[in-house]
Amino acid sequence: MRQMLLLALIVGSSVPVRAQSQSPPRPGAGGRVNQLKVLSDKIDDVTTIENIVKSFVKPGLSDQERAKALWTAIVKYRHQTAPPNEYLAGDWEAHDPVKIFNVYGYCMCCCCSALVEALNREDGREARGRILNGHSVPEVRYRNGWHMFDGSLITIFPRPRDGVAASVDEIAAAVADWYARHPDCHKNGEKLFQLMRKDGWMGWKAEGPRLLAHCPYYRGGYLPARTHGWDATMVEYDRKSEVYEYGYHVGHHALFSLRPGESFVREAGNRGLHVNMEVDPSWEVLKARAPENDLVYLKEFFPGYRGGVVANGVHRYAPDVAAGDLARGAEVFENLTVGGPELRVKDRGRPGVAVVPLVSPYVYLRGKLRLNATGHSAADRVSVSLSTNNGRSFAPIDSTAVERPTELKLDLKDTVLRRYAYWLRVELTGGAGLTAFEVENDFQHAPRTLPWLGRGKNTITVAADGDPTIATRSIACRITPDPAFTKNETSTTMGVRFENVDLRHDACWWTGGTGVMTVPVDVPGDLVGLGFSAQIRARGEKDLVRVAASTDGGKTWREVAVMRGPTQGRTEHIRVPKWPAGVRKVLLRFELTGTNTIGVQNFRVDADYRDPLATRTTRPFRVVHRWKEGGRERSHAETITRLPASYIIQAGAEPEMVSVTYEMASGR
What we know:
Layout: E1 33-40, H1 49-56, H2 63-77, E2 79-80, H3 97-104, E3 106-107, H4 109-122, E4 127-131, E5 136-142, E6 145-148, H5 168-181, H6 189-201, H7 203-207, H8 210-213, H9 230-236, E7 243-244, E8 256-258, E9 262-267, H10 298-301, E10 311-317, H11 325-329, E11 332-334, E12 336-339, E13 342-345, E14 352-359, E15 363-374, E16 381-387, E17 395-401, E18 406-411, H12 413-416, E19 421-429, E20 433-445, E21 456-464, E22 470-476, E23 497-499, E24 501-503, E25 508-510, E26 515-522, E27 527-538, E28 544-550, E29 558-564, E30 567-576, E31 585-593, E32 598-610, E33 621-629, E34 632-640, E35 645-651, E36 656-663
Parallel strand pairs: 2-3
Antiparallel strand pairs: 1-8, 1-21, 4-5, 4-7, 5-6, 9-10, 9-36, 10-20, 11-14, 12-13, 13-20, 14-19, 15-18, 15-20, 16-17, 16-19, 21-35, 22-32, 23-26, 24-25, 25-32, 26-31, 27-30, 27-32, 28-29, 28-31, 33-34, 33-36
Helix pairs in contact: 2-4, 6-9
């Protein structure tokens, strides 16, 4: 169940090692607008977990109706196929409702069980996972009982007597009872299939278990995607089902920021790029399109949708260097000045440094950087390094002497793959200068959440989901002691410290006394809120994980959460919204104590801060829709000067979406 913690004051602090000190904040000096979202009236607002719940759960609904509404959201915005691997938790796959809905749009049954758990706990109900034969499902608790909601294969089994969703144990009991009366069918797939297809594919309804016969989601014996039928259900529930926590992360937001010279282009289709492309470059799902084949269920759950499952896009940042845009968009801007058409070093006795953040709500797949540099001697040099761990450390990419005007082109693919944020550090020495800076990243997003157009009138809404001067820095990493693991960030790269625990490849486990996991949080502006999710195991009644925060380097601590046993596994999402003025460094400490098995299996931290680069007023930006009608290209560009804003786009014939662009112009 969701925990809400309202704390007036937190005390404590952390000091992560940074490769470059922060410049003095320049409040309002930048041009960045944060927390942006663009919606059409053809989609729901699923940009945050709170917005998912708000969009689907309406006032006055019963617990069953609320659980079913959230199940419907999952069916509408995700597809059953090989899951996206981010390698941030022990099971590798992405288990985050906002990521699945907005970034990927697909996953497998274990991931889908995690989504049901996360959304129902967010809405105030208990939830848990269950293990079947070759399948995983979740259950939600209400009316003093458990109720199964399978968003993966798309089914609920209402009890014939009262219409309440049956539990896993009730479904398994119905299957076991039927097998007791039909032993010749037990573990006989061919006989089950023949019974299913009997009497025009209705034999299962006349002769099978009554509970399954009452299910409204079978169509000719098959569930809505037509990949699994009644015969598969009879095999899946033929067992004693264990309880299992399909852990998840909460905290990702599908919201974007714009600076002068920055744009996001969300394409309606894909160019063959996806997060698992290293192992499956020719993935067949890249060509899938609704409502064909196993996307046929969208006729019922997302009528009118004609798009695919996977889409690509481009995040581009090309500030006007001469106009000072790079200075407005850099977190660090030291010993640099703009003179004429170029950026150059102020004091040649020391380097000039700019640290530029690249942050996306959609997962990066590859990137490239182009610099136009000037110089006059071998002592004039441009050096570039990159950080994927919130600027804690930088790895060199290139260092080039510039004796004449030089164009540098650098490939960032291997470094930025699977990340949502990274930092570029550009260092100028001697008489080196910079006349152009352009970084371009390919990303993956889920096209179902694109602000689609339909025939006729379409209402587009552009808004900030909260204060546009607030930005977020996230800590998401795999708990592992393995120094060779490089597929994503690890507890080591993010500076997490462990004491008195057994640190393994996917968790840290209590060994006696008090085990400690300490996560350093460091933000470039004043902290205004902190959220974290953690999957724990605490098997005994006396087992617990106590979470405390410090803003004074660990001298004093304030308890912010307690996660108690007994539990085989549970994920909790905690919010700590109020902090003292001026806090930018926090230590978040997880203390493991008890008498049994206790561990932290994965976690995520999101720190909201007052953005020094944010503009105090909304800097104008454009939203551009591009589509085709009968093969003819059409477009609509709208300049946004205030938030929120709303406008109408008229589409004649059935529109075929091409892309939607969000862009803020360069220059003053």
